Amino acid sequence: MSDSNAVSTSNAGGHATGLIVGRFDPPHLGHSFMIDWAAQRCEQLVVFVNSSTSADTAPGELRAGWLAELHPGVHVREVRHQLWNDWDDEELWARWMALFRAEWPLAAGPHVVFSSDAYVSEIARRFDAQSVVVDADRVTVPISATQIRESPADHLDRLAPPVRAWVEANWV
Q1: Of 9, 72, 108, 151, which residue is most buried, by most CB within 10 angstroms?
Q2: Across-strand partners of 48?
Q3: β-strands 15-22, 6-7: how paired?
Q4: Which stretches in the chain have pLDDT values below 70?
């Protein structure tokens, strides 16, 4: 995958529409940082919460609800699927992109795709959009959802109150 369209967070400008794609399983303060950062740079921001009952730890509908509550000016959509990730499989990419296009709620866009992960460049390329990598080294909020899933009690301080309450009740 080429990062030729990627820009650093310090170079991003205003965009009509933006997209963030992720599992957010569970959503944490690093996700909120990225969503808020991206929302400040877009007229309209869409967040796709990938949900696959075979891979979800927290239910997708719940994760999407938390993000919608935490970011009321953002379009949050649960995207249900039974797809997997294989960045070298063109047929699978076609299925992902068809799903994303079918779920896109706005008349135009996305014009930019935000992520803290490298795959953003390929998604953006396939949308003919710009890619923006946000805090890839997770310096601003040093946490990942994987770390939380592996040791939830150790990272409760990195969760917004509604997420923390659910994690404490269900995982700790």
Answers
A1: 9
A2: 21, 77
A3: unpaired
A4: 1-13
Report H helices in the chain: 29-39, 60-70, 90-103, 120-127, 145-150, 161-170
pLDDT value at position 78?
Answer: 98
Helix (H, G, I), strand (E, B) or coil at 155: helix
Q: How far apart are CA 143 and CA 150, in angstroms?
A: 12
Task: Give the H/E segment covering residue 47.
Answer: strand 42-51
CA-closest candidate to residue 100, choices 69, 134, 129: 129
Q: Of the candidates 135, 136, 172, 132, which has an alpha carbon nearest to the alpha carbon of residue 152?
A: 172
Token pair of 126 as six digits: 């396939």
How confident is the model over 112-160, as pLDDT tens digits?
A: 999 998 888 999 999 999 999 999 999 999 999 999 999 999 999 999 9
User: What's the pLDDT score for residue 1?
Assistant: 34
CA dist 13 and 111 (Å) reads 11
DSSP of 97-114: HHHHHHH--SSS--SEEE
CA 145 to chain CA mean position, Å: 11
Q: Are 5 and 118 in contact (CB under 8 A)?
A: no
User: HSE of 62 in the Cβ direction (CA atoms, 13 Å)?
Assistant: 16
CB 84, CB 99: distance < 8 Å: no
